[in-house]
Amino acid sequence: MRRDVLVLLIILAGLVSAALVGGSMWAERRASKLVKPTDQARVGEVVLTDPRTETGIPVRIWRPDQLPPAPHPAVEWSGPDHGLPLVIYVPSWGGRRSENDVMLSTIAGAGFIVVAMDDISHDRPDPATNAADEMVRLAPFSMQTTQDYTSFPITSERRTRLGYDKLQRVLDALRAGQASELLEGVDFSRIAVVGYSFGGAVAARAIAVDGRFAAGVDLDGWVIHTPAAAGLQRPFLAVYAALQPSGSIWSHRPNYETRIGWEDFGCLLGLARSSGSKVFIIDGARHSDFSDQLYAEDRWRHWRPWAPKRLAPERIHAIIDTLLLRFLVGHLIQHGSTPRADFAEVRSVTEIEGLSPTRPRLGVGSAN
């Protein structure tokens, strides 16, 4: 009898827990569906003409719906006095210009013109491109095997070079006067590049080698195996998801993405110290949280009782927008307004330096 009561209590406790978790996740999902691009910005689709190849480059352009733009709670800003700064967005590996509409509309609504392009994998083949570059351009991202890991330096160099080449062509077309209606009032002396994932690596490359860009933003991408790793002379912001535990890095079945991530962490730490770059980690965030997948994916499918709790979409939205807008406004509009770790979930890279793994001696947990 006593055993039956105990079993019943365990079952009831399980049902109550499931109801609480399910109700919380349902409410979160319902709230996420209400998140959409801000009505403080308007958008248009334009096909630019590549000045080098005469082929079309589809882009999506966001601009403020009103001038002066409505005030944004994340920044203190009195409005532009010399036109609107330009932000060019580079998407993820295989991504589209529409992958981050919520964030880009928020940037535009705060007083910027934002131009978003597609990933290079969606472009038409260029007869002048060599076979090795074309293979890297079209290949899906993979970090599953030892070969993927060992070839990553070459892959990164080739693909970020191709991504940067497209970024230059987009900027050249814009400066040539194309899409003039949507670009009305643009100030080409104040340009930033923002990228997510692979796009973040392209942004890092661009800010390292191209003086036309006044500032760069890397949203959970990488700087390792790009020219940025050697140091930067211009303002750079990197915002990353929580790093995965490093325990399996040097195991006999290593997680190569985790290994690359921690190697990149070392580069970011160096940039924060030597170049004054702003580098932040968001605890409770995942890679997909830096795009509109944040509002569309079925997060409940990935829920596990033992997994770390993820931040609510609205919280991540507020954190990223605040860090990003403070940085862009501080370097393109009002100098001096810089991003700060005002959120409990946000830590600077220098705060977590002690978590960085070191390679063990050979024969002690080594993969070799």
Give an overview of the whole structure:
GO terms for molecular function: 1-alkyl-2-acetylglycerophosphocholine esterase activity. Keywords: Hydrolase, Lipid degradation, Lipid metabolism. This protein is an alpha/beta fold. The chain is 36% helix and 16% strand. The chain has helices spanning 2-33, 101-109, 131-138, 146-175, 198-209, 256-274, 293-296, 313-332; strands at residues 41-49, 56-64, 84-90, 113-117, 186-196, 215-219, 236-241, 278-282, 346-348. A 9-stranded mixed β-sheet has the order 1-2-4-3-5-6-7-8-9, with helices on both faces. 39% of the residues are buried. The model is unreliable at 17-32 and 359-368 (pLDDT under 50).
What are the salient characteristics of this protein?
alpha/beta, lipid degradation, 368 residues, Alpha/beta hydrolase, 2 domains
